[in-house]
């Protein structure tokens, strides 16, 4: 579990195709010395496992499935990644609950510079649109952000200077594709209340008419 607050920006130095996996070598002197084998680290929003490390860099293994469902398939040596170690239960949850399980890819379709801040507009895959709500949380490339506006298949976020300067979003431009994770709470609500929910839940398949009948 993560928070979407980026600890450091690392650089992919090498991508090696192994036996059914890709090995990514990542340079990050900020967090590498504090890692341990088997630790979970989010690379641009994808939860991966530390396989080796030294005082300046570490490696992770990525399956073909993960490569195909994330932006890693387009990354090359020299690409930057946002890094965050797993949440400690004694820490403040300053972002939102992020699992590190990428749901899809969001493409930047608009960028407006407003003084020192940016207004970025994204196109979201159709099957994920229902999980995106105005003022709700969303994770893009491992960064916890707030949806400022949603219109049909698009949503926008407002970036403050600190977020721009401290994450890989500083190089964001129209056409870029980012790892997207929707709010996990929305998925749980859908599972509990939706038509496909299991068990004897009295709220199963709840409708607007039922809500009105119950006084809402």
From TrEMBL:
Pathways involved: Cofactor biosynthesis; riboflavin biosynthesis; riboflavin from 2-hydroxy-3-oxobutyl phosphate and 5-amino-6-(D-ribitylamino)uracil: step 2/2
Alphabetical keyword list: Repeat, Riboflavin biosynthesis, Transferase
Coiled-coil regions, chain positions: none
Example of a GO biological process term: riboflavin biosynthetic process
Repeat keyword on record: yes
SUPFAM superfamilies for the chain: Riboflavin synthase domain-like
PANTHER family assigned to the protein according to its UniProt record, in alphabetical order: RIBOFLAVIN SYNTHASE (PTHR21098:SF0), RIBOFLAVIN SYNTHASE ALPHA CHAIN (PTHR21098)
Protein's recorded name: Riboflavin synthase
Species, as recorded: Dethiosulfovibrio salsuginis
């Amino acid at each position: 579990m993560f928070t979407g607050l980026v600890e450091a920006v690392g650089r992919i130095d090498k991508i090696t195709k192994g036996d059914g996996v890709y090995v990514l070598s990542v340079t990050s002197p900020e967090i590498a010395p504090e890692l341990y084998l088997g630790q979970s680290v989010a690379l641009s929003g994808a939860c991966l496992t530390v396989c080796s490390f030294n005082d300046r860099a570490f490696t992770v293994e990525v399956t073909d499935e993960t490569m195909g469902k994330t932006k890693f398939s387009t990354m090359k040596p020299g690409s930057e990644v946002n890094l965050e170690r797993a949440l400690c239960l004694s820490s403040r949850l300053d972002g939102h609950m992020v699992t590190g399980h990428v749901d899809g890819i969001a493409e930047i379709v608009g960028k407006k510079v407003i003084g020192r801040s940016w207004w970025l507009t994204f196109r979201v895959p159709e099957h994920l649109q229902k999980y995106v709500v105005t003022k709700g949380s969303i994770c893009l490339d491992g960064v916890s952000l707030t949806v400022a506006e949603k219109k049909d298949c698009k949503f926008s976020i407002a970036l403050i200077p600190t977020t721009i300067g401290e994450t890989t979003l500083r190089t964001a431009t129209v056409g870029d594709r980012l790892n997207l994770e929707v709010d996990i709470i929305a998925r749980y609500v859908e599972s509990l209340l939706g038509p496909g929910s299991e068990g004897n839940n009295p709220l199963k398949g709840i409708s607007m008419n039922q809500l009105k009948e119950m006084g809402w």
